[in-house]
Amino acid sequence: MKSVLIFGISGFVGKYLSEEFITNGYHVEGSDLQYTENIPSEVCFTACDILNINAVTKLIKEKSPEYIVNLAAVSSVSTSWEIPSATISVNVIGTLNILEAAKTVAPMPKVMLIGSSEEYQQSINAITEDAPLNANNPYGISKMTQELFVDLYRKRYHMEIAYVRPFNHTGVGQKDNFVLPSFCKQSAEIERSGKSGVIHAGNLDVKRDFCDVRDVVRAYRMILENKNSSTIYNIGSGHAYSLSELLTYIISLSSQKIEVLIDSDMCRPVDSPIVVCDNNKIKMELGWEPEYSIFDTLREMYQYYLQD
How many CB atoms neighbour CB 268 within 10 A? Predict the structure, then answer.
């Protein structure tokens, strides 16, 4: 049985990626700072801080997995503005610790690292993998730095490192400091109250490419299993919707009257007007296609908060 070790398994994506691997016949080892109940029962969990190089090395040597996936990260752009040094520490130093540990194991495991569409330079066109990288926020800069080390370790140590640049993805379980869960939660709370209410929002004019997290983790598995580990893939739906359009849909799920209040404090210091993925490479080379509509995903998220 193939084995995979997932760092950052307690986070939003960890549950879904674990289930994707388990469904496809993998033995899954998982690690994070602490155990959470959303981790599937089939996962063998070990607590570990990726900033502790000794602990990371010990874990990888003990488990000796065929594959390693690092999901551990400061993953919010807005949070990265508040804690830029911690963002660099976790997203860069933590990644380096995993690479340093992985290269000491024989046979050397294949590693998957998660980049971001936030690495790219602003563009009004669909973004291909060849588009220039020029991040405009601490999170994006941390991912660009990580990617430079990926290239270095591939060349210097001949490591197999799969690298992806996912665009926005969401689903049930994502923290409500992200925009779409926030909208769904606020709308559901108003619906449960039985009276009219107000949703607070930032810049609704921006357009973003959103995927369902289940489509994204399926892409991760397909890319990790691909023998060519030097190709970088975008993961996205290929369609951009304005936040205004998505919020209007979420509000339509409620029977209550909902007013939208724009809060300037919720707007990013720097924001790209449109971000949309060109996903032709992964579709053509690996046969991946999104299976979920973002509107179906939003309805599931709204129903989840309605049951709270």
Answer: 14
Contact by Cβ (8 Å): 180, 136: no
Residue ranges of domains in the chain, CATH in brackets: 3-169+212-235 (3.40.50.720), 175-208+239-276+292-306 (3.90.25.10)
Residue 236 tokens read as: 């996205």
| Alpha-carbon span 190 to 91, nearest angstrom | 37
Between CA 82 and CA 64 the distance in angstroms is: 36
Contact 91, 142 (CB under 8 A): yes
How many whole angstroms separate alpha carbon 128 and alpha carbon 120?
9
Q: Kindly report the pTM of this predicted structure.
A: 0.95
Q: Which residues contact 187 (CB under 8 A, 6 or more apart)?
A: 199, 250, 251, 253, 254, 258, 302, 305
- Containing 154, the helix (H) or strand (E) segment is helix 138-157
Going by C-alpha positions, the residue among 207, 217, 231 that lies closest to residue 284 is: 231
Token pair for residue 106? 């024989």
Amino acid at position 1, single letter: M
The string of DSSP codes covering 3-39 is EEEEETTTSHHHHHHHHHHHHTT-EEEEEESS--TTS
Q: What angle do CA 99, 100, 102 make, to 5 degrees?
A: 60
Q: Look up residue 296 and give its two tokens.
A: 């179906």
Residuewise pLDDT in 10s, the chain (308 residues): 899 999 999 999 999 999 999 999 999 999 999 999 999 999 999 999 999 999 999 999 999 999 999 999 999 988 999 999 999 999 999 999 999 999 999 999 999 999 999 999 999 999 999 999 999 999 999 999 999 999 999 999 999 999 999 999 999 999 998 999 999 999 999 999 999 999 999 899 999 999 999 999 999 999 999 998 999 999 999 999 999 999 999 999 999 999 999 887 766 666 778 999 999 999 999 999 999 999 999 999 999 999 97
